[in-house]
Amino acid sequence: MLLREIKNIFHLELDTIYGKDEVASFFYILIEHYLNLERFVLAFQPDLNIRKEDEKPLFEGLAKLKSNQPIQYIIGNTIFMDLDFIVNENVLIPRPETEELVRWIIKIIKEKSETNSKNDKLKILDIGTGSGCIAIALAKNLSNANLYALDVSLEALSVAKKNALQNEVEITFINADILQNVNLEEHFDIIVSNPPYVRELEKTEMTNNVLEFEPSLALFVTDENPLIFYNSITEFASKKLKVGGVLFFEINQYLAKETQQLLEANNFQDIELRKDIFGNDRMLMAVK
């Protein structure tokens, strides 16, 4: 079948679900991934013929898109902070807002290092690491840091370890449940977490591709106790952050005030709330 005919089928089947532009983007992502073809190939080879065996993964991808499966899970990878990450149904797909959090951390650390004559290696812990995107991006951008990454899910840690290997960084991975007593000998300069924070009542705001395919363990909390992870992490950070150490959170925009009050109640200082690129209250920084 001609490649342009396959493209037309994609639009016929998917435009009403995703819109013309996004369908075109999906099509080009799939032909690059499966056939190693550039997105402008049709401009130079409008009558390019695709062999039957090479059509199969494209139409399988089409069927998955039709069922709302995220394109990142279909091809098995995504880009975060200009780095390549393996993703599957055991880990969340990294979001642009989380990139903003990572860039903020890097900026704060670099500013502090300019005024700090010591040059000791920082110890940084990422709680609820998932794909490892936060820890790995920090390790890649901070030569003076030792990274630790904790997650309750062995399946997620398996993905994160592959990502660390792929991106050539060393991370100490820890399998533990932050809602239980976590006993670590180390004390940290930075603790960062993007924990589950979406309340059950907010599910109506979410798209089917998230609800049906991304791991609910990493997304949802009960309406009755939406700050359960923030409580545990703040308590842990109170014990395991060095004096002057910094705690960073990605947060639920609707619970920014409550999360800030939690930090204040635990004697954290210099608390700063930041909005994401969409104008939502999304990040908190606090100093022990």
Please, could you describe this protein's structure?
This protein is of the alpha/beta class and 288 residues long. The chain is 44% helix and 21% strand. The protein is built from eleven helices and eleven strands. It has helices at 3-18, 20-35, 41-44, 52-66, 71-75, 96-115, 133-141, 154-166, 208-213, 228-240, 256-265; strands spanning 77-80, 83-86, 122-127, 145-151, 171-175, 188-193, 198-199, 220-221, 241-250, 269-275, 281-287. The strands form three sheets. It has a seven-stranded mixed beta sheet with strand order 5-4-3-6-9-11-10, sandwiched between helices. A two-stranded antiparallel ribbon has the order 1-2. Strands 7-8 form a two-stranded parallel ribbon. β4, α8 (154-166) and β5 form a beta-alpha-beta unit. α1 (3-18) packs across α2 (20-35), α2 (20-35) crosses α4 (52-66) and α6 packs parallel to α7 (133-141). The longest helix is centred in the middle third of the chain and has 20 residues, at 96-115. It is elongated.
